[in-house]
TrEMBL record:
Domain FAD-binding: 2-343
PANTHER family given in the database record: 3-(3-HYDROXY-PHENYL)PROPIONATE/3-HYDROXYCINNAMIC ACID HYDROXYLASE (PTHR43476), FAD-DEPENDENT MONOOXYGENASE (PTHR43476:SF5)
Record-given protein name: 4-hydroxybenzoate 3-monooxygenase
Organism domain of life: Bacteria
Amino acid sequence: MRTEVAIIGAGPAGLLLSHLLARAGIESVVLETRSQEYVASRIRAGILEHSSVELLTEAGLGGRLRAEGHEHRGIYLQWPHERHHLDFVDLTGRSVWVYGQTEVQKDLVAARAAGGQAVLYETSDTRLHDLETDRPYVTYVDAGGVARRLDAAVVAGCDGSFGPSRAAVPPQAHQTFERTYPYSWLGILADVAPSTDELIYAWHPDGFALHSMRSPTVSRLYLQVPNGTDVAGWSDARIWDELAGRLGHGQDGWTLTPGPITDKSVLPMRSLVQSPMRHGRLFLAGDAAHIVPPTGAKGLNLAIADVALLSRALTALLRDGDAGPAERYSDDALRRVWRCTHFSWWMTTMLHASGDPFDAQLQLSQLRWVTTSPAGAAGLAENYAGLPIAG
Ligand SMILES: Cc1cc2nc3c(=O)[nH]c(=O)nc-3n(C[C@H](O)[C@H](O)[C@H](O)COP(=O)(O)OP(=O)(O)OC[C@H]3O[C@@H](n4cnc5c(N)ncnc54)[C@H](O)[C@@H]3O)c2cc1C
């Protein structure tokens, strides 16, 4: 089989890239190792920044997002006995939207199906070849067990943190920057109306907690837990008790309403950047190139921003014969990646308990500054609501 762009991975990065390329008249084939149902049901990110919403809307994917998503003006930051609201719209003129990654994925799958896109699910043994030539190809085994070869002008590695694309770049041709954190998040989904109108980020000496949501009837909450935590040790009652304590149940009349928990998982926290994001005719995008801890709500937004740049670069390369934007893709994308990597690290280290009393005082000092200084508040707001995609 031959196509213009072989896309590995049918997560948000891969499907959005195929969608944007198709709008520019460029053909692609998407290979995905999991089933369509599995990819569609993965519960992950839930916050879209301003630029992501604009891009999805311009790409014709904003209908359900704007009808069923919820626009938030800002977030709450709190610590014991104090809660402050940061209004991003007042501070920067930009808002964020609550719209689950599962919904983004559904919209992308529907748009690609309507466009007749070839998405090959349940493939295995994906291997990348001849990336340093202008005739790269990918071999794989299809869902029926038949070995196949896909020839392309370009390979887009959109296969997340465990896919083969990142590893296909030879060790001497890249650098990996990495930070692991000594804590994880225990995340739950609960069939209960959120107890807050906007997200609450709570610093607490027992550990960070976050009250987020997916819809008016579904809440998403997180607790900082030690690495290696087994969810089996966390009963529903223990989780709600711990959330109530850390989120300040009873503080100034605020109450946390518990409800049936429908999903529990533990998410380790790490930062990783592989640089450059291009090797010959292989271009990396999304989690294939970088991972951020979820505290800054940046993972999905970075994947969207990478793909916006990459689709423009590949259009210039394959339609106009202009290799300039493709040559600059890695540098352009990495500028934003490092800004978001810093912001995610900064939010993470400001809000998670380390057990060190000196750290705790620094964190509280920083939180007081961010919530009382217009300059401090604007800095957080500008990064959280997101920088323009070209920036
Ligand atoms: C458990 C979890 C929770 C998260 N929570 C949040 C959150 O709360 N907030 C936030 O902002 N971000 C969160 N993230 C991050 C966010 O979900 C990712 O940044 C986002 O999914 C990146 O999209 P992507 O398309 O680059 O990668 P992915 O969504 O990982 O998609 C990559 C795809 O490639 C496929 N693939 C892998 N190997 C192969 C192969 N060999 N051949 C073909 N296909 C392959 C995978 O099956 C997958 O479908 C979370 C991530 C995880 C893992």
